[in-house]
Specification:
With 111 residues, this protein is mainly alpha-helical. It has five helices and no strands. The chain is 52% helix and 0% strand. The radius of gyration is 21 Å and the shape is elongated.
Length: 111
């Protein structure tokens, strides 16, 4: 995308506009390449923090419905990777690790 706006890659008539656009793209890249800056930016974006209703869980299944909720929220975890919700056949040790992880969940969002 950035090369499309590179001043050396466009016609002379679009060079000034291209320099401005390329400069903004470069500035955004410089800002977002740093983890703390990127996290600050991402924490301002809209986020679906709704919880499914009990009826939705019953209708579609506990693991199917709630897996998506934990995956969405896992994005914000200081600790990565985030353990999966698993399923009905998940070994007990993995289930306990999942609950231990979420019990002590620490988010970088809005820090």
């Amino acid at each position: 995308c950035a090369l499309v706006h590179h001043p050396d890659k466009v016609s002379a008539s679009k060079a000034e506009e291209s320099r401005s656009t390329f400069g903004m793209l470069n500035e955004a890249y410089e800002y977002l390449m740093h983890r703390a800056s990127r996290e600050m930016y991402e924490s301002t974006l809209p986020f679906d923090d709704r919880l499914p209703s009990e009826a939705a869980i019953v209708a579609s299944g506990f693991f199917l419905v709630l897996r998506a909720v934990f995956e969405r929220n896992g994005k914000w975890s200081v600790t990565q990777p985030v353990p999966s919700l698993g399923g009905e056949d998940t070994p007990l040790d993995d289930v306990l690790a999942f609950y231990e992880f979420w019990f002590s969940f620490e988010s970088w969002r809005d820090c």
